[in-house]
Amino acid sequence: MLHTPLTRRQALATLLAAGLAPLSRGVHAQDAYPSRPTTLMVGFSAGGAVDLVARQLGQVLGQQFGQTYVIENRAGATGTIAAEAVSRAKPDGYTLLLGTQSTMVVAPSMYPNLHFDPLKDFVPVSLIASVPLVLVVNPAVPLKTVQDVIQYAREKKGDLVYASSGLGGPQHVAMELFCAMAGVKMVHVPYKGEANAISDLLGNQVPLMFSNLPTLLPHIRSGKLRAIAVSSLQRADSAPEIPTVAESGLPGFEALTWFGLYAPAGTPQAAVTRLEQGVKTGLQDAALRDKLHSLGMTLVGSDSAAFRDYMVAESRKWGDLVRKAGIKPE
């Protein structure tokens, strides 16, 4: 049987088509991301700020992509249990982490035996939001300004006590940064949770602390606590009457609680880009914005590259502080 050139070309075309078919299916499958439910892991208990942000984010991403986002809480060890689990997950975009600065930039310097590296084992997808802290005192303590606090600490010669929600938490490292920049020493009293620390502050068992502004604002408004300064570089929209630490004598001072979305390293770029765009669009949702703003949060929605740069800077800043202050786990 004779084969004409046309027949050979047809055969070649058939072979090429067969070879390209799997690639074509892969491209379409990738373009379809996400095509099934996604687990969004949280390293803290349900009901807290991190959990709330994760649930709000999961809801708006689910609405955009037509898929379910399942929130899984694996609390403990400053969020590192959940982070380790996500770092080992299949890098397909269907297991994500809602991480915080405590987990992703402070804990690695405190716990040298962690089984993950935040910058090597994760893709930072987007910085979601941040929350300023506020330095407060019990009204029985005769302090009204940052300079008052610094002078009082000097007079106490290292015996001034401050509270925090626990070792390595944002309240703890914020005060350590304050002490380092002011050139003073204080005694740290870590509590098991923010609520317990605030309770003793209200009762004047401890004189001062940094804590999340949204949590303390009702006590400030009622006069049960006196606000000294906020930890952000700009004044908070929810309390513009409170000056910043930076403008009150410690230029450049900044310590924030922040929340970011992470995927395991090796996650396809197409999935990362889709998630990044989903976050940016989701943060425009009016209900989400109202909810997070009501909690005193500043919405960010950065791209992946900007979030990585921020992570590098934050890791250097807080890692140096943890080492110099000698902050170690109990």
TrEMBL record:
Keywords: Signal. The keyword Chaperone does not apply. It comes from the Bacteria. Residues 1-29 form the signal peptide. It holds the Pfam family TctC. Coiled coil: none annotated. Belongs to the UPF0065 (bug) family. PANTHER family: BLR1237 PROTEIN, TRICARBOXYLATE-BINDING PROTEIN. This is LacI family transcriptional regulator.
